[in-house]
Design a protein that fits this description.
The protein is an alpha/beta fold. The protein contains nine helices and seven strands. Strand 1 (48-52), helix 4 (58-66) and strand 2 form a beta-alpha-beta unit. It starts with a helix and ends with a strand.
């Protein structure tokens, strides 16, 4: 495997030196996308938020800023991401407002009805069977809770589809595919927003 392919494959589960380099760029590289996605949220301040596939931890930190009374539990499959996210949010962890854990979205380590909001930024491309994973998100949300997905790819843009071919396990979804999978998982109210200039999508579902 060439160096470039090895590097871009770190987006799935960052490990080792290349994983550290990848995580170093994730927080800044996805900031505008994530902020746009968060701006689509129009909900009362949630008590507890799950930030799923948290990567370097930047978005967990921004959720803590957006909702200054909320607590955030950030989860990632990668031990390296968990380490980075803990370092990024160390002050909020010390204050008791943030927790970072390692786990799998296909079997979330949370009790039923634990959260009012769950978020997933630039991550569902790698989830192992989205309907199963979305069912897990549905389970850990309280009735009336919100699930937000924000992706840089709308499932049709050429750049992302090229990466799909070289990154192991990556699958780009259209907004409609995500909506259908959410409904199949039990979500009753699903809406999507497409960025006016970029192939970015935000899909929001209510339990």
């Amino acid at each position: 495997m060439g160096l470039f392919k090895k590097y871009v494959n770190q987006t799935r589960k960052p490990e080792g030196f290349l994983g550290k380099v990848m995580l170093g760029g994730m927080n800044g590289g996805h900031a505008k996308l994530a902020d746009w996605g968060m701006s689509q949220l129009d909900i009362a301040e949630p008590s507890n938020i799950a930030e799923l596939g948290c990567g370097g931890g930047r978005n967990a930190g921004e959720l803590l800023k957006k909702y200054p009374s909320s607590k955030v539990t950030a989860l990632d499959y990668s031990a390296l991401s968990v380490e980075k996210a803990k370092d990024y949010n160390k002050d909020m962890i010390a204050s008791g407002r943030c927790k970072v854990v390692q786990g799998n979205v296909a079997e979330l380590p949370f009790a039923d009805g634990s959260f009012e909001l769950a978020t997933a930024f630039e991550t569902v491309y790698f989830w192992p069977g989205i309907e199963k994973c979305f069912s897990e998100v549905f389970r850990v949300l309280k009735t009336g809770g919100t699930f937000l997905i924000c992706n840089e790819s709308d499932g049709t843009d050429e750049t992302s589809l090229k990466f799909e071919k070289i990154i192991d396990g990556m699958k780009c979804y259209t907004a409609k595919q995500l909506e259908n999978a959410m409904k199949a998982a039990g979500f009753a109210e699903v809406t999507s927003v497409h960025h006016p200039k970029n192939p970015w999508i935000t899909v929001i579902a209510k339990k």
